[in-house]
UniProtKB/TrEMBL annotation, chain A:
A single GO BP: protein N-linked glycosylation
InterPro entries cross-referenced by the UniProt entry: Ribophorin_II_2nd, Ribophorin_II_3rd, Ribophorin_II_C, Ribophorin_II_N, Swp1
Membrane topology, from the record: Multi-pass membrane protein
Ribophorin II C-terminal domain boundaries: 589-689
Main localization, broad class: endoplasmic reticulum
Ribophorin II third domain span: 434-557
Record protein name field: Dolichyl-diphosphooligosaccharide--protein glycosyltransferase subunit 2
Domain Ribophorin II N-terminal per the UniProt entry, residue ranges: 30-311
UniProt signal peptide: 1-25
Gene Ontology terms: cellular component: oligosaccharyltransferase complex
TrEMBL record, chain B:
Name used for this protein in its record: Dolichyl-diphosphooligosaccharide--protein glycosyltransferase subunit DAD1
Segments traversing the membrane: 45-74, 95-114
Keyword rRNA-binding: no
Functional summary from the UniProt entry: Subunit of the oligosaccharyl transferase (OST) complex that catalyzes the initial transfer of a defined glycan (Glc(3)Man(9)GlcNAc(2) in eukaryotes) from the lipid carrier dolichol-pyrophosphate to an asparagine residue within an Asn-X-Ser/Thr consensus motif in nascent polypeptide chains, the first step in protein N-glycosylation. N-glycosylation occurs cotranslationally and the complex associates with the Sec61 complex at the channel-forming translocon complex that mediates protein translocation across the endoplasmic reticulum (ER). All subunits are required for a maximal enzyme activity.
Amino acid sequence: MGRGNLGGGFALLILVVSSIYQAAAIFHPISDSHRSAALDLFTPVHHGSFSSSLEEAYEALRTFEILGIIENKPDVGAATCHTVSETFRSTSSTSKDLYHASKVNSILKCDVDSKVFEGVVSRLQAAVSDAGSLLDFYYSIGSLVLIKDRTSKEDLHLVDAEGVFHSIKALSQSDGRWRYSSNNPESSTSAAGFALEALAGVVSLASSEIDQSMIGTTKSDILKLFDSIEKYDDGAFYFDEKVVDASDHQGPLSTTSSVVRGVMAFAAVASGSLNLPGDKILGLAKFFLGIGIPGDAKDFFNQVNSLACLESNRVSVPLILSLPATVLSLTKKTPLEVRVNTVLGSNAPPLSVNLVRASNSGSKGASIIENQELKFDPENAVYILDVLPKGVDVGKYVFVFEVVLHDSELKKVYVTGGQTQVPIFVTGVIKIDNAEVAVLDSDLGNIEIQKKLDLAGENAVSLSANHLEKLRLSFQLTTPLGHAFKPHQAILKLIHETKVEHIFMVGSSGKQFEIVLDFLGLIEKFFYFSGKYDMQLIVGDAVMENSFLQALGNVELDLPEPPEKAPRPPLPVDPYSRYGPKAEISHIFRSPEKRPAKELSLAFLGLTFLPFIGFLVGLLRLGANLKNFPTSAVPATFAILFQLGIAAVLLLYALFWLKLDLFTTLRTLGFLGAFLMFVGHRTLSHLAATSAKLKSA
Amino acid sequence: MARSTGKDAHALFHALRSAYAATPTNLKIIDLYVGFSVFTALTQVAYMAIVGSFPFNSFLSGVLSCIGTAILAVCLRIQVNKENKEFKDLAPERAFADFVLCNLVLHLVIMNFLG
C-alpha cells in the first residue's frame, strides 16, 4: 500500500516536472500576413507564367490554392497550360516531367486532348513496370493517380498492383526508413515519405483490394518511422535525416514535409486507423507553424502544403490555441482573448477553453486563478475572459489553458494538446509618492534643507551642499494592488556643468526607495569639480506603463580644492573615433650594428691574400717540385683523383657556405670522403712503397 | 755594450740561419705554410681591431681556422721529421694523410661556424 502510494507520488512528480519543463510558447495559425507574403514571394517571372520550371509553377499554384488566393492570378493560366500540353505531347519527357505537368494540370484544369492522355498513360504504365529506383515509382504512379482523377477514368488500373507494392516495400529498412534504390545502401527519412505516397497511389490504382497484411506491415513501418521523430523544447516535433550528406542535405523542413505528405496520403487510402499518437501530430503542426513566414519559395511551399495535409487528415486534426495579444493592461482593462483554430485558420468544432491556472513567474507555485472558463464570442470566434481576477497584479505570468471538446466523439478526430502554457505580461501604472530630496548634516543627520518632489510633473528644486553634507532622495513605489514593486531601473544621475555624468543606483527595502550620497566619500569620484550639478531620476520597468526620466532640479556643490595630483575625468571620447582606426604603431627595431666602410673591408681582403702569395713565392724559392709525382699510369690516375678529391671537398665547403645546408653537405661529404679515403690510401701507399724501395735500394 | 750585443745578435742570427739551411726541404715547406697561416690570422686580428668584432662568430672561425691549420701543420712537421726518434716507425705518408683528414674536418666545422 505504501509502495503503491510512493510509486503514484513519484509518477505525479515526474508529470509535474515534465509539464513545468515544457517551455511556454505560442504558435499562430496561418493568417493574412502569410497570404501577402505568398503574393510577394511567388511572383511570375515572365508575364503569364511562373518561370520555366513546371515544378516551381506547381509550387506557386498549390500555395495560392491552399491560401485561397488563386483567383488573383488568372493570367498565368494560358502560358502554363501551354507548357503542360507540350510536356504531355513530347516523347522525351521523363516521368518526373510528366508528374509535375499532371500536378499543374490538376490545379489549372487545362484542356488536353484525350488521345494525348492515352499516350501518356501507356508510357507511364510502361515506366512503372520498368521502374528501377524509388523515385521512378513515385513519379510514374503519382502521375497516373492525378491523370485518373482529372479524366475520371474509372478503368485506369495498375497492371500488377501487388507486384509493384512488393517492389516498393522491398526497399524499406527495419527502422522505418526507405532506400532510394537497391544499389544505394543508405536509407533516408525523406525517401520514406516518397515511398508511402507511392504506396498510397498503388492502393488507389489497384483493380482489386491489396492484401491486408501488406497494408498492416506498412502501418507498422510508419509507427517505426515515428519512433525516430525528434523534438524541440517548445513542443515541436520534426524529422531529420540521420546521415548528413553535404551535397544533398535537405534539412528538417523538407524531410518532415515529405514524411507528413506520405503518411497522410497513406492514411487516406488505408482502411482502419493508423494509431499514431495525437500529440506527435500536434507537434508536427507546431513545427510547421513555428517557422513563421519563410523567405524561400520552396520552404514556403513545403510549410503550407504540409499544413494543408494536416488540416483535414484521417489520423487526427490538430487544433492550435493562440492568443492575439499577450500583454494585458490593468489600466486599459484589456480582456484576455484566446483563439482555437485549425492550422490553416479555419474554425474549430464546438469546444470550451478553460484557464486552468495562472501563476506568477517570479514567485514559484502560488496560483492566482483556478479553473476559469472563458466565454465564447461567436461573432469574432474568440474566447474571452472579460475581467481578470482580483489577485492579478503587474508582472510576468504563465497562464495554463486547457481545451475541452464538447462532443467526446470528436476526440478521435481532433487533437488539442492537453494543457498549453502561455507567457503573459500584465502591465499597469505604478504609483509614486512621498518623493522628497533633502540635504543632511553629515555628523548628526540633521536635515538642513528638505524639498518635496512631485514626480508626476515638473520639478525644479535648487539645493546647495558642501563636501561635509549628504544628499538624500527617497520615494515610494506601489503597484495598483498596493504591493511593493522593484523596477528594473531606479537610477539617480548627477550631471556637472562640464557634462561629466555620475550614475548611482537607488536601493530599496519593500516599498521605500532611498539613496544617500555622502559627498565626503565622493569627492574623488567627482574629480573635485565644484559647481552646479543637474539631478535626474530614471525609474523604468517592462511592466510599468509610466516609466519616466525626470529632471529634479540642481544642487550646487562646494567641494575642496583639488590637490596637485588630482585625477582628471576621462576626456569625452568621440564615438566615431573610438571605433575608428587606431594610430599606426611604429616598431622600434634594434639598430643594426655599425659596419665598416666597403673600401676598408676590400682592402683587408686583399691584405689577407698577401700571405698566401708570399707562401707561393716562398715555395718557388725553396725549389718545391713535383718530382715525386708518380709517372706510371695507374698510380698517376689515383694521384690525380686524390688531388681532385681534395679540391672537390674544398669546393663543397665553399658551396656549403654559399647556399647548401648542413645535411646535404654531410651527405655529399660522406660520399666524397669515402672516395677520397680509398683514392688517398692507394696513392699514399704507392708513394710509401716507392720511397721504401728507394731507401732499401 | 751596444756594439758587442749588436755583433752578438748578428752572429746568433747568422748561426741560426745556417743551421736552418740544413733542414730538409719538405720541412721548410711546412714551416712556410705555418708562417703563411699565422700571418693570415694576424691580418684578421688587425682587421677586427680596426672595425670591431661585430659578426664575432665569423671572426672566430677565421682566426681559428688559421691557427688550427697551423697547429696541424706543426704536428705534421713533428711526425715527418726524421730526427725525431719518437715517430721513427710512422710513415710520413700516413702523417700526411692524417694532416689532410684533420684539415678537412677542421674546415667543415669552420665553414659551419662562419655563418
